[in-house]
Amino acid sequence: MKPRGKPTSGIFAAQDEAIHPALKKPVSGAYSMSTLVSFEPYVDTTMRVFCDQLEARFAKNEGGKPPPFDFGQWLQIFSFDVIGDLTFSIRLGFLESGTDVDHVMASIWNTFRQTSVVSR
């Protein structure tokens, strides 16, 4: 990750106008509008589960005050299940459990923290 002892530019942090297009080109097709539209059914399916979980956990609380609600955390959980459905054709159970299944999110965050020191 540090060829010749120097940090390597990543696609998201590259500011050099010559390097950024070269890093972007191999993956740009995955972000074209036609590709993104083809993902919509997966997002819709997971969105239904997301709404059902939020309603069951936070809106239909008949016993009194609903539990605290961290919308940012739930959006991240939703995102991981969408990505699981797109990548593996199965949601990974984040929404159903309402948790970081097998500490996947924490592990990724830890990897980002460790690799940030070797990238720009």
UniProtKB/TrEMBL annotation:
Keywords carried by this UniProt record: Iron, Metal-binding
Question: Per UniProt, what is one GO molecular function of this protein?
Answer: monooxygenase activity
The cofactors required by this protein are: heme
Query: Which InterPro entries is this protein grouped with?
Result: Cyt_P450 (IPR001128), Cyt_P450_sf (IPR036396), Cytochrome_P450_monoxygenase (IPR050121)
Domain of life from the UniProt record: Eukaryota
Q: Report the sequence similarity comment from the record.
A: Belongs to the cytochrome P450 family.
User: What name goes with this protein?
Assistant: Uncharacterized protein
